[in-house]
Amino acid sequence: MARSVAPYLDKAWSRLYRGRGQSEIPDVINLADINSSWPDFRSQIRDSIVSGQVGPDYVEIIDAPKNPFAVRPIARLSVHDRLVYDTLVFAIANLIDNQLRESVFSARWGSNGEDFWSPVNSWVSMQKRGVEIVSEDIFQLARTDVVSFYEHIDVNTLAIDIQAVGASAPITERLIHYLRMFQQSSHAWGIPQGPDASGILANIYLLPIDEFVHRAGFKYLRYSDDMMIFDTDRESLRNALLEINSILRSRRLSMSGTKTNVYDHRESITQLEDLEKDAINYGIKIGEPGAGERLYKLFTEAVEGRQRDRDVKFALFRMGRLRDDRALPWVLRHLKESHHLASQLLQYLECFPDRRPATGRAFISTMRLIADHKYDHLEQRILQAATRQRVHSPSIRDMAWTILQDKNKSNLPREFAARYLGRNSTVADGQLLRRQYEDEENVNVRRALLVAMYEARSVSRGLLESLASSKSQLSWVSRYLLKNPYVPLPR
Description:
By secondary structure, this protein is α+β, with helices and mostly antiparallel strands. It has helices at residues 2-18, 32-36, 38-51, 79-97, 119-136, 155-164, 169-184, 196-205, 207-216, 234-250, 265-272, 275-286, 291-303, 309-321, 328-333, 342-350, 356-370, 376-388, 394-405, 411-423, 427-439, 443-455, 461-468, 475-481, and strands at 60-65, 71-76, 140-144, 219-223, 226-231, 261-263. It has 24 helices and six strands.
């Protein structure tokens, strides 16, 4: 079995390490410690899979903002547990992909069976195909998705699906055992949200929907649980939605009432087509005069009235690349109100290093505004950005200490608070970091504190050597720090 899973383990690590900067759960040192000891770490994971000792002992659930008020639960697995999960799923990915029709665009394993299609390109391709379908006739569009899809996937039903595609018994047993332990080790349900591997399992779980729509003769597109059905007759679309709802219920799922609708032909085009963005993109590409003005106009319209988040992200990414600073005042004022877009807002600010003093002031004022409130994601992202941009501030340092010492907070902001303190420490800070490490129970925060102590020149070689030779989860970071590295800034 060791040989059979080895290529998938390497693929899992390659994807995890390559995508470390875009992760919803970023690593405080970009997985540099694991990369430094990868051959040994790889052997440990391979042995776990071969022996059947799989399944997470502990899962942290991170509330990632979807909008200013709602969140979705992202499963934070240890690197070991994440790679075990990805490896097991990747080993059956091609079997699952072979069952999918061309109408499915999400989590496709690729024509060569070796890697994923690009998620962004896949989404765009689906939208373009939708425009082509609507243009073929006076089609109407029925659109729906599933309430809390990943959370409500039934593992027992999924086990039957996995066996049906021809997965080997050892892989199936280990994967289902893993998912059952996942549910037992946290307050999460279903399958982990966040890993790419879950998108593959989600595809097999919705195969009955795909088959029904195909047999009924509808034109159809699906990206994960976002489903689009096309027909010229409104009643036919309504009947299709009712049948899909029945199939979903049989698989312990519920159709979203707020996101289920039938659109007439003109509305269907609006749902799928975005001519203005396409024109702006093309104009920027060829250097068309006025393309920048059209982009800025799109941004201003997106932030007026009810904010259009998708357009804000589209505009800020391109304005940053064009070094167009006209969105800076809005971004600096709206870090709190648009905290669910923190990654995009902060990436835009980083495009203007000459404005670092204003950025630092905005960080300070925003962190003061959100102190004592539940904005853990925004605090983490600001501390991550402040560390990366080398924003040295006594005020941010004081707030970082407050966050680090608050054990009621989720762990991510505490880890990045430790990293900020390590990079911006006084002599006294170094001594206090050692004390904080001794009192800390969470292994992820302890790992961040070890790195902070190292950067503050307050960690003893004896401690690192002791941990490096132990079976502690901190052995990998300790071995890394003993090499006296320059620790990479968080992405």
